[in-house]
């Protein structure tokens, strides 16, 4: 073997040390980059040269810059991200709805109902008293306004959710297209940092899509990712399908996927934040339906009893409350004529009764304790409390799930970090090792050069 | 056992998450300690929602029932005073009648006493027209106007029996039908009017006959006082029960919604300590890398 070959061997050491230093630099630079998987340089002995029956070593070479990642763990991170985002979005939206019901303040619907019945009871002291009648109508009006506000808040929350879903779908589509694009780059890139970087960027997009819409990923042998929502593929190879947000004929939110065989409704399979928002929207619509049913039952019973009484002029009672069918809570109101003239309240039990007669008033008051709601099983107050309890249960469930899935996401993220994260202490140690390796290789070269100089200086 | 590999970024993320969790618990503990409440809204404890709403509804109802029962007792006390006043007047009228029914008195003496009897009738009508804040107690449902014509003694009210709600499905009287209460089997007004007529006629037999009417009227008043007493007892009982119930409901709502102060402050102290510790850990973790020492 020649001294020149020793120079080549020393150079191979420099190359390996440079690659190692470069990889440390890449890792440190991306230590906090979301989705980054640390790179590990794999060095192997260069193939020996057989001479004179001996195998002469040829130094070292970089065999691989490995992307340290576990696809199973990464898939679990995506699933946990989707679940946590779903529960968090549901919790946030439903909490806002619960706040709009304002259960503890004097403005809550239950308190407004209590006030209405309290004023009816107070009117029994003097059924003909115009001031007390006026107070009753004020509390009745406030009750209807409370329901109007609650209905408006529910409608506003579903509108806000629709708007967010509309906007987020454009972003989702952009990311789906990017994933398909990265699939192509991963397939065509050479091994090494190039492919690995594309994989990291694509995986980060997958996490973001899992958070947005609950996609799950499957990886093929060539590194390409197939993204699924429920059982429907939204990205396959280089193709991203179109996901759109729309509404049903009744105005309910709907997510559609364009496939080769047509448009598919995937609303119930959507997860992530969009899934949480869709559930919250569905719940809000359901709460509004409950309020509408409550108003219908309440108005029907009060109006029916009021019609059996007689007002201060001796005329039969007209409607106390009005509403428009299909929008009961939002159009719930005190009859305009009654609101303008308290004498029209039919407290008396007979047309010719004196103003102090409160026979019909007593029967209207009795409605408070009667089981006229929820299939004649609940009082008005209990039926209203049931709606509050249902909202509370949904919020509490979402809160528990958000916490539980948050812990799950933390745990699986920690596991991913332990596998793919950049350990700065390790990188610092590696940097020192590569530095020492580089210095040693350089010393081999300078020493060899000195030897060559001695050799070439002989005889001069 | 395999060693778990940890990274600087992973450690900081974990510390951040834990700090965030502790901050959330601290915020909750602060709200509980400051407000004294552990139930602010349904999601705090959905299973208690219906119970809390019922307690609050019942408490609100009680306030009105207590107010109504208090009003009823005021009206009934006024009615009792009026009936007592009429009974006293009737006793005087009977005394006068017994005295003038004696043959020792002349017709002229009887006729001279008419003015005294007329004053008694005026007093009876004044009591019968007793009003409380402009509300005529014996006018039935027509309580906005006088129950009796002060001149003729004719009943102007109606036959209604005004009542107010003092409990679920329970009422107490806030007025009476004077034509039934004061003018039933015995008529307190006609009895005095008959005495006046008899005195005016000057005949002892007529005056003796008027005594029977007065006795019937006294019996009628006795019944009236029994009725008023019964209503008063009903209203008083309601007040007593509602006052006790209000205290119990207040305690129940407190049990359902209020926080144990000592436990709340202890919890707050614990989470504040934990939060400060978490912040210290975060600060000290910042320089824990080999790079910082190279």
Question: How confident overall, as mean pLDDT of chain A?
Answer: 92
Could you tell me how far the N terminus lies from the C terminus of chain A, measured between alpha carbons in angstroms?
Answer: 25 Å
Query: Count of helical segments of chain A?
Result: 11
Low-confidence stretches of chain A: none
How would you describe the overall organization of this protein?
The complex is a heterodimer of chains A (460) and B (294). By secondary structure, chain A is α+β, with helices and mostly antiparallel strands. Chain A has 2 domains: 3-68 and 424-457, no CATH class; 70-420, no CATH class. Chain A is 61% helix and 12% strand. Chain A has 11 helices and 13 strands. In chain A, the strands form 5 sheets. Chain A has a 4-stranded antiparallel β-sheet. A 3-stranded antiparallel β-sheet of chain A has the order 9-10-11. A two-stranded antiparallel ribbon of chain A has the order 1-4. In chain A, a hairpin with a 5-residue loop joins β5 (216-219) and β6 (225-229). In chain A, α4 (130-188) runs antiparallel to α5 (193-213), α5 (193-213) runs parallel beside α6 and α6 packs antiparallel against α10. The radius of gyration of chain A is 37 Å and the shape is rod-shaped. The model of chain A has no long low-confidence stretch (mean pLDDT 92). With 294 residues, chain B is mainly α. Chain B has 2 domains: 10-37 and 258-293; 50-253, f41 fragment of flagellin, N-terminal domain, CATH 1.20.1330.10. Helix content of chain B is 67%, strand content 4%. In chain B, the strands form 2 sheets. In chain B, strands 1-2 form a two-stranded antiparallel ribbon. Chain B is rod-shaped, with a radius of gyration of 38 Å. Chain B starts with 7 loop residues before the first helix and ends in a 9-residue tail after the last helix. The mean pLDDT of chain B is 91. At the A-B interface, α2, α3, α9, α10 and α11 of A face α1, α2 and β3 of B.
């Amino acid at each position: 073997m020649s001294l020149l070959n020793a120079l080549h061997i020393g150079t191979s050491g420099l190359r390996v040390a440079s690659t190692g230093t470069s990889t440390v630099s890449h890792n440190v630079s991306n230590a906090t980059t979301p989705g980054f998987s640390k790179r590990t340089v794999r060095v192997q002995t260069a193939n020996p040269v057989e001479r004179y029956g001996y195998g002469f070593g040829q130094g070292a070479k970089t065999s691989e810059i490995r992307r340290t990642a576990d696809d199973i763990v990464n898939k679990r991170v995506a699933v946990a991200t989707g679940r946590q985002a779903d529960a968090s979005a549901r919790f946030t939206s439903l909490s806002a709805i619960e706040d709009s019901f304002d259960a503890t303040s004097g403005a809550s619907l239950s308190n407004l109902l209590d006030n209405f019945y309290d004023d009816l009871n107070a009117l029994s002291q003097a059924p003909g008293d115009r001031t007390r009648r006026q107070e009753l109508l004020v509390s009745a009006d406030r009750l209807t306004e409370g329901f109007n506000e609650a209905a408006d808040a529910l409608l506003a929350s579903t509108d806000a959710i629709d708007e967010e879903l509309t906007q987020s779908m454009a972003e989702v589509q952009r990311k789906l297209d990017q994933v398909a694009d990265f699939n192509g780059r991963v397939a065509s890139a050479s091994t090494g940092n190039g492919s690995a970087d594309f994989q990291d960027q694509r995986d980060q997009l997958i996490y973001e899509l899992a958070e947005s819409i609950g996609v799950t990923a499957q990886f093929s042998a060539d590194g390409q990712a197939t993204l699924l929502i429920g059982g429907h593929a939204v990205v396959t190879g280089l193709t991203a399908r179109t996901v759109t947000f729309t509404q049903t004929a009744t105005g309910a939110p709907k997510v559609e996927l364009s496939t080769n065989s047509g448009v598919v409704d995937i609303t119930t399979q959507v997860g992530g934040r969009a899934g949480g928002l869709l559930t919250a929207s569905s719940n809000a619509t359901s709460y509004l339906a409950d309020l509408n049913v409550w108003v219908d039952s309440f108005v029907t019973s009060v109006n029916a009893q009021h019609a059996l009484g007689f007002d201060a002029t001796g005329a039969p009672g007209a409607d106390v409350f009005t509403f428009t069918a299909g929008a009961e809570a939002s159009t719930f109101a005190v009859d305009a004529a009654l609101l303008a003239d308290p004498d029209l309240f039919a407290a008396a039990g007979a047309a010719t009764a004196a103003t102090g007669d409160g026979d019909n008033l007593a029967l209207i008051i009795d409605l408070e304790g009667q089981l006229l709601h929820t299939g004649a099983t609940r009082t008005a107050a209990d039926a209203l409390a049931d709606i509050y309890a249902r909202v509370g249960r949904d919020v509490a469930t979402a809160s528990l799930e958000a916490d539980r899935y948050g812990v799950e996401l933390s745990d699986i993220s920690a596991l991913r970090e332990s596998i793919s994260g950049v350990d700065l202490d390790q990188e610092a140690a590696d940097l020192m090792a590569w530095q020492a390796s580089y210095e040693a290789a350089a010393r081999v070269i300078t020493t060899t050069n000195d030897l060559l100089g001695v050799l070439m200086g002989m005889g001069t | 056992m395999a060693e778990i590999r940890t990274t600087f970024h992973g450690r900081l993320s974990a510390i951040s998450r834990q700090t965030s969790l502790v901050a959330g618990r601290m915020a909750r503990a602060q709200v509980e300690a400051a407000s004294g409440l552990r139930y602010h809204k349904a999601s705090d404890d959905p299973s208690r929602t219906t119970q809390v709403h019922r307690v609050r509804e019942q408490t609100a109802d009680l306030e009105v029932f207590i107010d109504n029962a208090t009003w009823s007792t005021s009206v009934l006390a006024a009615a009792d005073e009026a009936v007592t006043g009429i009974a006293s007047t009737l006793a005087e009228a009977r005394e006068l009648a017994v005295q003038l029914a004696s043959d020792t008195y002349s017709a002229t003496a009887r006729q001279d006493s008419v003015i005294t009897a007329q004053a008694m009738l005026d007093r009876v009508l004044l009591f019968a027209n007793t009003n409380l804040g402009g509300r005529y107690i014996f006018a039935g449902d027509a309580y906005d106007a006088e129950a009796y014509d002060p001149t003729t003694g004719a009943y102007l009210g109606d036959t209604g029996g005004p009542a107010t709600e003092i409990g679920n499905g329970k009422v107490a009287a806030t007025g009476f039908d004077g034509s039934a209460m004061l003018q039933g089997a015995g008529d307190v007004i006609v009895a005095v009017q008959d005495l006046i007529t008899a005195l005016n006629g000057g005949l002892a037999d007529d005056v003796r006959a008027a005594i029977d009417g007065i006795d019937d009227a006294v019996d009628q008043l006795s019944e009236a006082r029994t009725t008023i007493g019964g209503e008063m007892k009903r209203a008083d009982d309601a007040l007593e029960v509602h006052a006790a119930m209000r205290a119990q409901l207040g305690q129940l709502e407190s049990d359902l919604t209020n926080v144990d102060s000592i436990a709340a402050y202890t919890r707050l102290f614990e989470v504040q300590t934990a939060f400060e510790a978490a912040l210290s850990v975060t600060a000290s973790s910042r320089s824990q890398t080999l790079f910082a020492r190279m």
